[in-house]
Amino acid sequence: MRILVANVNTTQSMTDSIAAAARAAASAGTEIVGLTPRFGADSCEGNFESYLAALAVMDAVSRYEGEFDAVIQAGYGEHGREGLQELLDVPVVDITEAAASTAMFLGHRYSVVTTLDRAVPLIEDRLRLAGLDARCASVRASGLGVLELEEDPERAVKEIVAQAEAAVGDDRAEVIVLGCGGMSGLDARIRERCGVPVVDGVAAAVAVAEGLVRLGLSTSKVRTYAPPRPKKVTGWPLSSA
Fold first, then answer.
1. Cα 177-182-185 angle, rounded to 5 deg
2. Is 0.90 surpassed by the pTM of this model?
3. CA–CA distances in Å: residue 124 to residues 97, 114, 127
4. What's the CA gap between 118 and 47, in Å, rounded?
């Protein structure tokens, strides 16, 4: 089984970290291929960058040469999953939905700890759109930018733990979800300090993607995610624009 894990930003080191976390969660025999978009922002922290990332990820996946069994979009709260589902016949898993749905198996309510406060409304909207908001106790910001997660991992853990503890103590959350692909690999350290289950979206997405492939299931093409209708699309694929 081969799973493409698409970073939503252009920072190669973050792609490498996300792919490493995905490999750690994958079963024996599952090949993880990390994709870095060829255009876009070096981090996604707002609507403009998120919509740009949606296009960039579709481009990166469309340009991949070779067969694959599933795709993971590794951006928390980012747009674009729906477009990929129209384009592809294989399962497409977004880490936002994979993490939140996994959290609901582990406790009554969950909280998301993300990066900057400006990302909170985007995540709230994506959870609402996916029908996963009813059991979300809160979405909290650590105050760290995406790139700061790599620059100072110790500070990242400290700030994430502080918000996670507040979510458990003040918001009555029972599970913590890491709300950024750049937080992948920090779940064990945060779990140890908080004493509650901590869900890494990349790891959760790998488990969901593998399960769907093994069950022989993929996106319904009957209505919402039917392939795009044949028509002239100027400048697509972008590689030939």
1. 70
2. yes
3. 12, 11, 5
4. 9
Q: In what order do the strands lie in the sheet with 175-178?
A: 136-141, 110-114, 175-178, 198-200
| Dist. CA 149–CA 182, nearest whole Å | 7
Structure token pair of residue 46: 């707002």
The one-letter code for the residue type at 70 is A
Residue 196 CA, distance from chain mean position: 21
Which residue in the block uniquely carries the two structure tokens 């959870």? 127
Integer Cα distance of 235 and 241 in angstroms: 5
Q: With contact defined as beta carbons under 8 Å apart, do 153 and 180 qualify?
A: no
CA distances from 193 to 97, 138, 196 (A): 25, 19, 9
Contact indicator for 150, 73 with CB cutoff of 8 Å = no
Chain centroid offset of residue 154 CA: 22
8 A C-beta contact, residue 135 and residue 110: yes
Rounded Cα distance, 53 and 115, in Å: 17
Give tens-digit pLDDT for 36-72: 999 999 999 999 999 999 999 999 999 999 999 999 9
Angle, helices 153-170 vs 187-194, to 10°: value is: 40
Facing residues of 164 across strands? none
